[in-house]
Amino acid sequence: MDTVAAPHRRLGSIDGLRAIAALAVVAFHLTWRSPTLRGGRGASVTGHLDTGVEVFFVLSGFLIFLPFARALHASDPLPRTLPYALRRVTRVWPGYLVALFLALLFGLAEVSGWSGFAKHSTLTYLYFEDRGGRPFPVAWTLVVEVSFYLMVPLLARLLPVVRSRLVEASLVLVGAGVFFQNLVAHDLHTPPAVRVLPPALLSLGLGMTLAAVAASAHEPGAIAGRVLAVARRPAVPLTAAAVAFIAMVVLVPAGTDMVDRPSDRFAKELLQAVVAVGI
Fold it and tell me: Of 42, 104, 139, 195, which residue is most buried, by most CB within 10 angstroms?
């Protein structure tokens, strides 16, 4: 865990992983917007490169929760809410609002009146049955991210009672994510609020678990110790990620072909989470 040795240094490996995940998502969207690519031999592989989204969620869970996990583990004050909120706002909204304006200008998105504009500009449109227009496709991930940004400081204020069990508490969130992934996969008519953050807790919770492990690296518990032992042998998680991706390519239909098969949707989410945490 390099973050323990250099807690305030941005890891080049994380930035590189973000770049790879972004390219993977771009390749996925190019595949399913091009009839030629969609019918090509490589579509069974590129049709699963939306796994990059889960990589982003694992990274977000890790990076956002890490300062809170460190504070909780050391019994220090939690990060201040206002600076935290300002960093999140300035990181997300300026770029998003510019992208939204350009998407509206070039017909890549639509909003229905001022109420629709309010839903989309505040990144809350997924919480409504009437979304107030047609968003540009990748915006949904930001709705999930912003919901997570709001959850973390609130959750962290409840966690001091289990500060010695942060890894286990994070794994509870992973379990909740698995439950909601299964629920949403088998019932496409769940309430909007259930479809936004709860299923994403699978990958976000895995990132939080890694953050809790990193925070306790100097005094690891049983689970954290095992995770650190695996982390010291990177070939192990990378092999697990490779096996999970190959299994996804072989066993799960790529792209939108799986829409009528709940078991495939659920299996894909689980395998994507394994890939994301493995790499």
Answer: 195
